[in-house]
Design goal:
Layout lengths: L1 H15 L11 E4 L1 E3 L7 E3 H13 L3 E2 L2 H8 L10 E8 L2 H14 L3 E5 L13 H9 L3 E5 L7 H7 L2 H23 L5 E3 L7 H9 L4 E3 L18 E2 L7 H7 L6
Parallel strand pairs: 1-5, 1-10, 2-3, 4-5, 5-6, 6-7, 8-9
Helix pairs in contact: 2-4, 6-7
């Protein structure tokens, strides 16, 4: 009888206790632009994007806010749900407002946008501050930093002397955070590295500037083994559909 009771306790623990931290495996899906046709390598057509959302909904995935994953990594939150996935978009392209927003409302899912403020309400391809505030009011969008004007840190490091480069990095990190905080009411503490360029020095500078997490474009799921200032994301193209998309979210896509 005692052996049977012990067996049932073991089964209960395996079924109900949260997985060990080292076993988390969360695909972060990164988009940039949307539209009816492929305009460039960063465009995912709107029908393909909706097929991604349908697949996730129909196959038992839970789309969680990026914030929830970061909080979990920092020990601030409870266990993640089964089959978690995160959706993010970089740059603030106007198609986020015209094409992505209707589908986010339709499927009622959380999204994190990484913005570089110099383009907002300035560049013809970018959203306006009014449109971004409208996204925020839905309660489905978290707005975060992509530096101030999306620089290539490798090129800037070669071009500038050491002191100039230090000032440049600090400006890009702080000025973006300050502008976004001012326009959107605070809460800016996550960063996406422009062009996926990062190193230990940049990570340290980001921490100094007040960021608690930062994100690359490495193509593998985020796990507890990853440096929180260098968390990976899958940069998606329109070809990432059907079996290719399934392989990504099932953790079977190659790095």
């Amino acid at each position: 009888m005692r052996k049977l009771a012990a067996l049932w306790i073991s089964v209960f623990l395996l079924c109900w206790l949260p997985a060990a931290e080292g076993s988390i495996n969360v695909p972060i899906l990164l988009y940039h632009r949307f539209g009816p046709s492929v305009a460039d390598s960063m465009t995912v057509t709107t029908p393909v994007f909706e097929s991604h959302l349908r697949y996730l909904k129909d196959n038992g995935y839970t789309i969680i806010p990026l914030r929830r994953l970061v909080d979990y990594r920092l020990g601030r939150g409870g266990a993640l749900p089964p089959r978690p996935v995160v959706i993010v978009a970089d740059d603030g392209h106007k198609s986020v407002y015209t094409e992505m927003l209707p589908l986010i409302k339709k499927y009622r899912i959380p999204v994190t946008l990484f913005l570089y403020p110099s383009a907002i309400s300035n560049a013809s391809y970018a959203m306006t501050w009014e449109e971004i505030r409208e996204l925020k009011k839905t309660g489905l969008f978290d707005l975060q930093s992509h530096t101030y004007w999306h620089p290539n840190f490798k090129k800037e490091k070669k071009k500038l002397n050491a002191d100039e480069y230090e000032k440049f990095v600090g400006m890009q990190l702080r000025k973006s955070k300050e502008k976004l905080d001012k326009e959107l009411g605070g809460g800016i503490d996550m960063l996406a590295w422009p062009f996926g360029i990062y190193d230990d020095h940049l990570a340290a500078k980001a921490k100094e500037a007040g960021y608690i997490a930062a994100f690359t474009i490495e193509r593998y799921p985020a796990s507890a083994a990853d440096n929180i200032m260098m968390l990976p994301r899958y940069l998606l193209a329109n070809s990432d559909k059907g079996k290719a998309f399934e392989a990504i979210v099932n953790g079977k896509s190659s790095r």
